Structures are given as C-alpha cells and as structure tokens.
From TrEMBL:
Domain 2Fe-2S ferredoxin-type: 1-78
Cofactor: [4Fe-4S] cluster; [2Fe-2S] cluster
Pfam families on file: Fe_hyd_lg_C (PF02906), Fe_hyd_SSU (PF02256), Fer2_4 (PF13510), Fer4_Nqo3 (PF22117), NADH-G_4Fe-4S_3 (PF10588)
Keyword field contains NADP: no
Start and end residues of each 4Fe-4S His(Cys)3-ligated-type domain: 78-121
A Gene Ontology molecular function term of the record: 4 iron, 4 sulfur cluster binding
Enzyme Commission number(s) from the entry: 1.6.5.3
Domain 4Fe-4S ferredoxin-type: 141-171, 185-213
Enzyme class: oxidoreductase
Protein name: NADH dehydrogenase I subunit G
Length: 567
C-alpha cells in the first residue's frame, strides 16, 4: 500500500494502481475519452491530465502509477485550463456538423463528448472545425461507421482486438486526417467483422451505430394491408428499462409488452417461445449425433456473431454446428406458416419484426440461407427510441402479458440471454427425456457465472456428457484452440458477446461489466419465479408439434427450422 494525497484527501491505496483508479476509489471524477475499463491503456486523449507536486509537466492519470507520498491535484486552474484546450482540439477534429447537428445524432442522449463538455465547463469552441471529408461506411447489414464523427480514441480498435480478438480496425493517415478504418478501407461488410457490435459500446461518440430498421417498422405499422407481429428476445426484457432511467437489472417484461401494443403491433409474441422449440430440436439432434457417430462436439448455432466467426476463422468446424436455426429465425418461419394458417391470415400479409439485444441479428435476418423468415430487426436501443417518439410513458404502464400461441415460454428460455443459459436449458430437457427421470435440482451452477470458459459433466443413462461454454469471442477462440488440440466435448455453447446476449451490441449504452451482471441476475430471477421451467413442458410447444410439426426432428421441422451454412 502507498500513501497519497489527492485534492487534499489523504488516502492509502494499493501499490501499482493508476492515479485514475485511485481517484475513482475516492469518488473523484477525472474526465477520460480514450480510457475504458478492461482495455489496455492508450493515454492518447490526454483529457485526464493531473498536476503532481514537484513535477513540471502534467501527467495523464490513466497512464501514471501512484507513488508513495504523491500529492496530486486533479482540478487545479492549470489542469482545467489545459483540459479545455485539449477538449477543443478533439472537438475540432470531430464531425464538422457536430456542433450544428448534435440534436439529430444517434448518440444525442448518450454522447460522451457532450457529457465531458458539461463536466469541464466548456462554453465555447474557439477553433475552426476540420472537415475530414470521409464517406460513411454503409457496407455492413448490421453496423454503420461515420468516420467524420470519430475522435480516434482507439477504443473500438482495442475492444475488437483485445476482447473479441478479431481485430478488423486499424488507423490510417496522419495528423488531423487520422482515421479509424478497415483493411484497405474495404468497409465493415467486406472484412472479417462478426457484426457483434461491441465496437458500438466502446465508441464515445456517434461514429459507430447499428443499421436502423425503425423507420421501416414505422412504415409497416401504418400500413393497413400488413399484419405486423413482433417477437422479443430474452435479454431485452432486463435491459430496456435502462433507456428510461431505471436501474440495471429491472425486470421490465410486462411494460415492454404493453409498450409494444401501444406502438400498434398486431400481436406481441416472444422469441422465448421458439427458444423452447430450439431446445426440442437441438436436443433431438444431439441425441441423434451421439447415437449415430455424428460430428461431435456439437456447437450451438443461435448466436449469429459466433456463426460468422466460425465461418471466417474455423471453417473446418462448420459441420459441428447444430443445423438448428436460431430462435429468432425459427420464430419467423413458424409465424409465417403455423400462425398464419391457424389465424387465417394470408402468409404474405404477415410482417415479422424482432426486438433483439444484438446487431448481428440484422445480418442473420438477411442471410440467403433463411431470408424471408424475419423482415426487420430492431435493437433494444431502437425500440426505446420508437417508444419515446410515440410519447409512451412506458415506466407508468401496467404490465401486460405476451399473446398466446407463440408467447408462452419456460424459465429455461429466459436464461438463454445469459452465458451458459442455452446449455442449462438443454441439460434440463436432455436429462429428463433421456433418463425418463425428473430432475431434483434444476440449476446447473457449473455452467453459470462470469468465467470465460466453463465446463461440466452430466451423467445420462450411464454416459458421461461433457459440455463446455464460452462467451466473448476472445474466450471462444481459446476454447476452439483447445478443441483443435484434441480436448473432447460432446456439446458446446458459444456466444459472441461478453456475458451472452445481455451484453449484446444493441443493448442500451453503457453496457459495463457491472451492468451485465445485474441483467444476468434478473434473468435467473425470472426463471426461478416461473412455474414452467423446462422447455419440454411448455404446453404450446407440445401443441405446435401435435397440430403442425408432428414429432421432433420431423421432415416438416427440418424444412422450417433447420439450415446449413453455405458460406
Ligand atoms: Fe439471444 Fe437467442 S438468446 S441469440 O442470445 O438462442 O440476440 O436475448 O434472442 O435467436 O432466444 C440474442 C438474446 C436471442 C436467438 C434466443 C438464442
């Protein structure tokens, strides 16, 4: 431990930590733009400069370690003055329109530049803004990049490289023309981008955002010839409330459903319903592979960022992917067949909209292998925007339930949104169907929690089933290397985003580690409080098989619910 003094406060802090960390522990806020917890320190923006007694030069708090006896001033007149000038320089290299079009920017409510301007008391930008003149990158189905809004803080580069270990971004040019770009400026849609959207969470400005579908959704909602059904992903219900100022981890299912009805959707259904369906189909597939010497381990196929990742980096394992479409796509296929027929609505009148925590789901919906199942995909953020635009006071709405037929789900489906959740849901069902016995303990704690890679073994009729779980593509790479080197598993769950879907690239900003943890806790709470906690006990899933699909893995089920990746 070392003794330091920050702004007149005597503190004892751990040796080796940065001045920034020490200040945060003492609840002193030092502005930063290029710093992000969990990423390497870059020290490029210099906004966190502080004055250290006895030193002539100001030092960046993020990149300077505390020393015994250090006396630090974080907000002295000199520091404040330098910080304002540095800030003006950063803004001058930002979008020329930023000061004029701030109100219409995608990050109008959550722009870190705006927040810092307020924190450091900037009331006037004295410098002329430099026009970089770059064109927007609209090559991706999921993400838009607006380089003129980029302040080259490098957070997206480090997030993609250090957390996801994909590394599609780099910098080009020098001086004020410096820009973050992709290999040979090919565009995000033409490089190894997985569409996970973690870069959007890292970006402090509006330089990265999702491809918007909400204007299209407004159009179909006002088209009397269309019958618009919406599905809600597991992870949205525990995050949407954050966009309306409620605490992370608030369970908001009922208000979300009520808000969607007020927006004018004809039916409000649940992706959780087809998450239960996925378990039936995926479980059947696993048992078949186990019994017939099929390709093992079998990999889950519901995270579209992971699918794109395996296509780019481990194509030799594509046959290990479950052939099941994701719950999002299964929902679209069932809504446009079973539901259309049952409710006497012409199939071509039905428009399927998804609300997803995920930017890669926009890409998934456009994949040629399953195009047409889902028409539009809104992120959690886009849904919040529509609710605000419609003037719906959602936090004061009474809770409502999803519509029947495709809206009832088990607790196993809710936990799909957390890392390990798909595995746990599958184990609950596989155990009971294979052994014919009731599970005493439904919680498979070994596959829960924050560890990047988790393993468990379950005995099914005398056979040891070895399973593993990885979340965040950096961890996925580690697990794939283990498998490549011969480590044996039967079934593996892989999710592109840290924490699973609750940490998806379409979730409210910020999505920090602490916020992810609270969303996960909320999902497990929903599961615990449900009577129906196993996918195979969902009465509407049983009805779907009886009335339409016949048995698990039937010809019809294969036609509608399974696919092969052709990339
Ligand atoms: Fe997920 Fe899903 S759980 S990928 O994480 O399987 O996005 O929430 O909707 O499709 O159900 C995301 C979340 C889903 C799908 C489900 C799966």
């Amino acid at each position: 431990m070392v003794k330091i003094n920050i702004d007149g406060l005597d503190l004892e802090v751990r040796d080796g930590i940065s001045i920034l960390e020490a200040a945060r522990q003492a609840h002193i806020k030092i502005p930063t733009l290029c710093y992000e917890e969990g990423l390497s320190v870059y020290g490029g923006c210099r906004l966190c400069v502080v004055e250290i007694e006895g030193e002539a030069l100001l030092k960046p708090a993020c990149a300077t370690e505390v020393n015994d006896g250090m006396v630090i001033k974080t907000h002295s007149p000199k520091v404040r003055d330098v910080r304002r000038t540095l800030f003006e320089l950063i803004v001058a290299s930002h979008n020329i329109d930023c000061q004029l079009n701030c109100l219409t920017c995608s990050r109008a409510g959550s722009c870190e530049l705006r927040e810092i301007a307020e924190d450091i008391g900037v009331s006037n930008i004295r410098l002329a803004t430099y026009d970089k003149g770059y064109r927007d990158d609209r090559s991706s189905y999921s993400i838009v990049r607006e380089p003129n809004k980029c302040i080259t803080c490098g957070r997206c580069i480090r997030k993609c490289e250090e957390v996801q270990e994909v590394g599609i971004f780099t910098t080009a040019n020098r001086g004020p023309a410096t820009v973050v770009t992709t290999f040979k400026e090919k565009g995000m849609g033409n490089v190894e981008c997985t569409n996970c959207g973690q870069c959007i969470h890292a970006c402090p400005t509006g330089a990265l955002h999702e491809v918007y579908h909400y204007e299209k959704v407004w159009e179909v909602l006002h088209d009397r010839d269309k019958y618009v059904v919406v599905q809600t992903a597991p992870a949205v219900r525990v995050a949407l409330s954050e966009a309306f100022g409620l605490k992370p981890g608030t369970i908001f299912t009922g208000q979300m459903v009520a808000g969607l009805r007020r927006l004018g959707f004809d039916r409000v259904f649940d992706t959780n319903f087809t998450a239960d369906l996925t378990i039936m189909e995926e479980g059947t597939e696993l048992i078949e592979r186990l019994n017939n010497n099929g390709e093992l381990p079998m990999f889950t196929s519901c995270s579209p960022g992971w699918i794109k990742y395996i296509e780019h980096f481990y194509p030799e394992f594509i046959d290990n992917l479950s052939t099941c479409k994701s719950p999002q796509q299964m929902f679209g296929a069932i809504a446009k067949s079973y539901y259309a027929d049952k409710s006497n609505i012409p199939r071509d009148k039905i428009v399927v909209v998804s609300v997803m925590p995920c930017t890669a789901k926009k890409f998934e919906a456009r994949r040629p292998e399953m195009e047409g199942d889902v028409d539009y995909v809104l992120t959690t953020r886009e849904l919040a925007r529509m609710i605000k635009e419609a003037g719906i006071d959602i936090t004061n709405l009474n809770a409502e339930e999803h519509d029947k037929l495709m809206g009832t789900s088990s607790g196993a489906a809710d936990i799909f949104g957390a890392t390990g959740g798909v595995m746990e849901a599958a184990l609950r069902t596989a155990y009971e169907l294979v052994t014919g016995e009731k599970l005493g303990q439904l919680d498979f704690k070994n596959v829960r929690g924050e560890a990047g890679i988790k393993e468990a073994e379950v005995t099914l009729n005398g056979t040891q089933l070895k399973v593993a779980v990885a979340h965040g593509l950096g961890n996925v790479r580690k697990l794939m290397e283990l498998i490549k080197s011969g480590k044996e598993y039967h079934f593996v769950e892989l999710m592109a985003c840290p924490g699973g879907c609750i940490g998806g690239g379409g979730q409210p900003i910020p999505t920090s580690e602490d916020i992810r943890r609270k969303r996960i806790e909320a999902l497990y709470k929903i599961d615990k409080n449900k009577k129906l906690r196993k996918s195979h006990e969902n009465p509407y899933i049983k009805k779907l098989y009886q009335e339409f699909l016949d048995k698990h893995g039937s010809h019809k089920a294969h036609e509608l619910l399974h696919t092969h990746y052709i990339n």
